[in-house]
Amino acid sequence: MSRLLKAYDRSRVPLYIQVASVLRTRIQSGQWSAGEKISTLEELEREFEVARVTVRQAVDILREEGLLQARQGLGTFVSKKTQDRHWVKLATSWNTLIESLKDNVPRRLAIDEGVAPPVLGDSDGDLASSYVKLRSVQYRNEDPYSVVNLLLAREVFDLSPVRFKNAAALVTIDAMDEITLSEAHQTLTIGSADPEIADLLKISIGAPTVEAHCVVIDDGGIAIYVGDIIYRSESIKLQMDLLGTKPQRDKKARNAHKAVDLARRKSGKA
């Protein structure tokens, strides 16, 4: 068995998705430039050591994404205007997180009350008396890119139910003078789409995803926001400041105390 076939066997992701991922990388990295004719199905079949149907499925995925175009009798070409599908730049500070969410309008799937409380880790604060569950799908240009499962403290939700139903919860929390935050942190993991997530995000079952777990704690030590967000992997770009630049603290006067790194403690209001 070749090294390539052994690599396929180590992954639970379907073969055609693995092949599509490699081809997508070639386009997005510029290895295949805009307007360039790509390898034929036969050439790709030999290169990847897979069946012709697997290669065809992989190419079809990229055609649906707008990255490839088939020209009858000529072959398959990289689209001249390839769409940047890295829609979301994952935030590493509170300011950038809020800015990235300001224009976000969630499409609510459900709002449930009387739900079970979240399971909290050692650094996640204490449980609120009760929670409201908000579930939504986030879109860009009619394309779904994330599914949000959020448990929001009931007393926080009751401060502005209409706003929480129609806007991103973190943006709503950030704008509230009634709430002072002490800590917020976010953890990222790589996963794969189960049948429900695949249907909501319009991706294949088993396709790679990026899963973010975000916890926001108020000044009373209560976990008021516990969210799990599942992103399409190709919609995500993560850029980190490796020099650890100090967070900006001049956002706006009344919310200046909130402009801090997600992993650092936030100061109280004056």
From TrEMBL:
<dbReference type="InterPro" id="IPR000524">
    <property type="entry name" value="Tscrpt_reg_HTH_GntR"/>
</dbReference>
<feature type="region of interest" description="Disordered">
    <location>
        <begin position="249"/>
        <end position="270"/>
    </location>
</feature>
<keyword id="KW-0238">DNA-binding</keyword>
<dbReference type="GO" id="GO:0045892">
    <property type="term" value="P:negative regulation of DNA-templated transcription"/>
</dbReference>
<keyword id="KW-0804">Transcription</keyword>
<dbReference type="InterPro" id="IPR028978">
    <property type="entry name" value="Chorismate_lyase_/UTRA_dom_sf"/>
</dbReference>
<dbReference type="GO" id="GO:0003700">
    <property type="term" value="F:DNA-binding transcription factor activity"/>
</dbReference>
<keyword id="KW-0805">Transcription regulation</keyword>
<dbReference type="InterPro" id="IPR050679">
    <property type="entry name" value="Bact_HTH_transcr_reg"/>
</dbReference>
<dbReference type="InterPro" id="IPR036388">
    <property type="entry name" value="WH-like_DNA-bd_sf"/>
</dbReference>
<dbReference type="GO" id="GO:0003677">
    <property type="term" value="F:DNA binding"/>
</dbReference>
<dbReference type="Pfam" id="PF07702">
    <property type="entry name" value="UTRA"/>
</dbReference>
<dbReference type="InterPro" id="IPR036390">
    <property type="entry name" value="WH_DNA-bd_sf"/>
</dbReference>
<protein>
    <submittedName>
        <fullName>GntR family transcriptional regulator</fullName>
    </submittedName>
</protein>
<feature type="domain" description="HTH gntR-type">
    <location>
        <begin position="13"/>
        <end position="81"/>
    </location>
</feature>
<dbReference type="InterPro" id="IPR011663">
    <property type="entry name" value="UTRA"/>
</dbReference>
<dbReference type="Pfam" id="PF00392">
    <property type="entry name" value="GntR"/>
</dbReference>
